[in-house]
Amino acid sequence: MPGPRIVLLHGVATTSTMWRGVLAFLDGLDVVAPDRPCLGDLDAELGALEPIVDGALLVGVSGGATLGLAFAASETRLAGAILHEPAVGSLVPGLLGPVAAAYSENGVPGFGATLYGSLWDPGMASADPGAVERELPMFRAFEPAAAAPGQGPVLVTVGGDSPPPRHAAATALRERLGYRVRVIPGTSHFVPAEQPEALARLIRETHTALVAD
After folding, report:
1. Backbone φ, ψ for residue 202 (5° rounding)
2. Which of 14, 31, 130, 159 is the most buried (most CB within 10 A)?
3. Percent of the chain residues past pLDDT 70, beyond the cut
């Protein structure tokens, strides 16, 4: 099928393997799911990813969604984006407080279990032992901005089963910065594991709409 390449960006304490369930429903499309370098510096991370993100339909979850917001506000051209539960900085202070506390108390296992829930296990984390330590401060310091002129449609999603702060974050992005928001029923933060078919369906619908335009 013609249309933009689809780029899937994973979050903190995961790798590209988090997308296996989603990829099973995206056959026939041009899809790439890179392992992010997890540099811990926002500009450096964006620079490393820009060559594959430029012109693409970007799909991100958690930290990958936060990077998607950063790309949306940048000069890098996006055909569109689907961003599930990104960080939102001072729009919802303390959103990442629980996962930061879990990391302080129990390291990567505590962080991953708190952020992603029972479907996550330590084997899903990067083999790089310093990845979470580098990335957590970067994402806690992130401040979102409105999408730059000329960007394709950017959709922020939130899990129907996610806690109130996540819904507050999505609402703030809509009301303060103009992003469209959709709730994905029957899931929370770890949507690629909890509802891979529903996420893949949304990706296909979005891609088809971009091709039609």
Report:
1. -65, -40
2. 14
3. 100
The one-letter code for the residue type at 5 is R
**Which tokens sit at 158?**
């939130």
**Closest among 46, 53, 12 to 190, alpha carbons compared:** 12
Give the number of other Cβ atoms within 10 Å of residue 136's Cβ. 20
Please state whether the predicted TM-score (pTM) of the whole model is above 0.90: yes
Helices (H), 36-96: 42-53, 63-72
Residue type, 191: V
Average pLDDT in the 7-33 region?
98
Q: Give the span between the Cα atoms of 1 and 8, in whole angstroms.
A: 18
Any long-range contacts for 2-5 (C-beta under 8 Å, 24+ apart)? Answer: 2/211, 3/30, 3/57, 3/79, 3/207, 3/208, 3/210, 3/211, 4/30, 4/55, 4/56, 4/57, 4/79, 4/80, 4/207, 4/210, 5/30, 5/31, 5/32, 5/52, 5/55, 5/56, 5/57
For residue 6, pLDDT over 60 is answered with yes
Residue 2 above 90 pLDDT?
no
CA 201 to chain centre: 17
Residue 115 near residue 62 (C-beta atoms within 8 A)? yes
Quote the CA–CA distance of 158 and 82 in Å, as a whole number.
Answer: 11
Q: Name the band, by pLDDT with cuts 50, 70 and 90, for residue 47.
A: very high
